[in-house]
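PROTEIN–LIGAND DATA SHEET

This sheet pairs a single protein chain with one bound small molecule, magnesium ion, given as SMILES. Inputs appear in the order they were entered. The predicted three-dimensional arrangement of chain and ligand is reported afterwards as a token string under its own label.
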Amino acid sequence: MHRAHTAFSLALSPMAHKNFATWLLKSSSSQQMAKVTAAAAVRTYNSAAAEPFANGSTASYVEEMYNAWLRDPTSVHTSWDAYFRSNSYVSPPNLAPVQANTLPLTAFNFGGAVAGAAPDSKTIDDHLAVQAIIRSYQIRGHNIAHLDPLEINTPELPGNSSTKSIYANFSFGEQDMDRQFKLPSTTFIGGDEASLPLKEILNRLENVYCNKIGVEFMFINSLEQCNWIRKRFETPGVLNFSPEEKRLILARLTRATGFEAFLAKKYSSEKRFGLEGCEIMIPALKEIIDVSTELGVESVIMGMPHRGRLNTLANVCRKPLNQIFTQFAGLEAADDGSGDVKYHLGTYIERLNRVTNKNIRLAVVANPSHLEAVDPVVQGKTRAEQFYRGDQEGKKVMSILIHGDAAFCGQGVVYETMHLSDLPDYTTHGTIHVVANNQIGFTTDPRFSRSSPYCTDVARVVNAPIFHVNADDPEAVMHVCKVAAEWRATFHKDCVIDLVGYRRNGHNEIDEPMFTQPLMYQKIRKHKNCLDLYADKLIAEGTVTAEEVKSVAAKYENICEEAFALAKTETHVKYKDWLDSPWSGFFEGKDPLKVAPTGVKEETLIHIGNRFSSPPPNAAEFVIHKGLLRVLAARKAMVDEKVADWALGEAMAFGSLLKEGIHVRLSGQDVERGTFSHRHHVLHHQLVDKATYNSLQHMYPDQAPYSVSNSSLSEYAVLGFEHGYSMTNPNALVLWEAQFGDFSNTAQSIIDQFISSGQSKWVRQSGLVMLLPHGMEGMGPEHSSCRVERFLQMSSDDPDYFPPESDEFGVRQLHDINWIVANCSTPANYYHILRRQIALPFRKPLILCTPKSLLRHPEAKSPFSEMSEGSEFQRIIPDNGPAGQNPSNVKKVVFCSGRVYYDLTKTRREKQLEGEIAIVRVEQISPFPFDLVKEQANLYKNAELVWAQEEHKNQGSWTYVQPRFLTALNHSRDVSYVGRACGASTATGSKAQHIRELNALLNDAIST
Ligand SMILES: Cc1ncc(C[n+]2csc(CCOP(=O)(O)OP(=O)(O)O)c2C)c(N)n1
Ligand SMILES: [Mg+2]
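PREDICTION REPORTED AS:
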């Protein structure tokens, strides 16, 4: 099912617009049908000459004019408008309001019932029928509303015969039209009037629900919210705008239109993904921002695709036009990075909102081509900004997400992001979604791009009201935007504005749309643009003169010309001008190569360890599960012995950072307990629902906040969200953990498009940590590998370049690379690498393979001495046993990474080769520790060098490390591969085969 029909099907169907008349009178006479159909046609009449009533009596003519005026004051001549506004008109008895809201049902004469007597059953039935009609309009009015400026969509949805069948049951005829009906409390169409004639009820409902706005909201399961919406659309006069307001809309529309026209003139062969056909989006965004600012919002974070982006930067954010025009000049960049095309860049601006006279910050988040990928990123950034401002209800910071119609319904990440909208640790307290619905996606029309009636149906899952509106009716659009902003401020929930427009050009300006949509574009070619239509309307009603319209347009063109001239004087572009998340002050006064120490005082470790192993203090009644009491006791015993396992090492890192004022946020599926039941940061009272204790939130009275949250079962949106969160403040450790590392590939666009390349494209840094459980432990193909080879393949360090050796070798490498990939084998090293994320004078994403069985491995423990003052992260852990102590005896050095180390040492012990085989762990795989590998190789001058890995040969680290080993060894020695053969799958599903393969690898590696 889909809503769209092409112009072709329209051409075959002369009576494209069905309306209430056809629903109501299915069982009535054709004469009545004709009459009411004619009355309904008044929606489209504009001039007295064209209107169908002039041949009636003067009284009925005036009456019809009055009806038309009630529906749309602009549809009648201005003299009539003035006349009706002056209240001089006394409507005939059947239109005259009865006393306001005071009369009981029995007070009406309903054509049969005597006033004062109890109503008969027909009267009651008819009233119920009217109530049902009102409700039907509220539920289904949007189906037939005039939303499409091109009128190529049949207004009624295909297959919606249920609508007709409901109306077919009500057989009101012409004789009923003047009957007075009491209005139920579920409608506001009466204003101050308690009852209205049926004709007036239908006219008003038609006008509210089937005109240029289609409100889809009756699925919301809150009466309060439904009534709130009804009131804002049904109350008479809500669509009346003052002349000042109209002029403002016109001025904004002039700028939006003028901007695209200027670019088209100056850069006719450049792609800019113009907004032509939906220019109203710019005044719409401005209206949302104005109303929201009025209601207390100080910061708006926006995410949007290509379409209209430059216009938004220019006319919503007011980014200097010359900076935008400079992007067209193809200049070299003055700063580092590889940059991005102009319609992907972000911006951040702080300015005075001239309408509200309040300061406002506006950010448009940079995004890749991948449509909708930016949605969760914006939400994470918004959430973080709310958090740092203490804005717990989202009153000061809000997000706006702009979508294309095809992408909004086609991209799954929209759904995933929607589902974050009401989760306690992910909500941004209401997002306003704006769909620039041009009824096409590249060359595909909606009949072939979605199975739902509207492109916005995805929002129904979170009970978001959806306001469809014809983009050619600026006042209707402004009203909808105002309601959307008020909705968000009132209920702090998502809502959607569906701006139904068209696309005047091809997908981009050099594309030919007639190849694929000939009929649609024939219509478009003949269609006047929105600015001209609105200007004509305002001129006709006397709000502005034609000269004023021209002069506003000319003035804006002058502004563009001046900026154009200025842009010509520029010699370079500056990527920094396009930064969406500036970290003011973070880099100031910092030595760019100085890393703060990551070891902490032993007493700090002991304090954190004791807290982490204790139940809530002074809460004897808090009942903890017996199994967890054992876990706590085991932790306490480790603290007493001054050793840490994986969970304790992690808690030491988090706790010590929190002590230093660094906010820590860990998010992902089941992270509170940990997939492998090792973490247990949240203790649950066994008898009281939702009573929990999280010791890391209670380490120190003045610590930074700690947040750990089980996420929805999503990787794409949640990883995007945490990436966005990490962009806001560099002084926070933000971690996302995958359930198993392999699931991270459902978030591949976030990894590829944002995390690995964000700094290079958009000068934006992020210290996000990805924790990816990884290891070949016989669990089958799907839970073994985080595909570390993919991350390594995206690392930007040159395999053939050995950087100059110096004391700062390690930090300089980190500075220069795009991200860090590591596989730590000890809790201490895990602890240090987490702390190093904050100790660095810059931010880099950290991709960390994390263990599974090692979480409980008796040897995978670290003494406190390896975490206390003076200790630090070890990029390579040398062999500290007999081999390392007597290197000249060593015949073979086995380099490895991660958990296989423990298997290798066990085999070496069993084979009693501890003096002859050295095992060296490469903990930080990328950037590659060239210097330390060289040092180790020099230590074992005569030994054979091998790289042993448990992953298949075409997977794991081998292809990344091999050329780098050769560079580190200056090609003077070789390093050979020991491990599994190449494979298509990550691991075998057979336990027996797994063990066979592992033994073969261990035997190959540990042999001389
Ligand atoms: C994830 C993704 N897939 C495919 C594309 C290629 N693409 C670019 S624009 C576009 C059409 C988008 O249509 P719509 O969302 O309606 O936006 P419009 O261009 O009409 O404003 C497509 C398919 C993309 N950018 N991102
Ligand atoms: Mg589109």
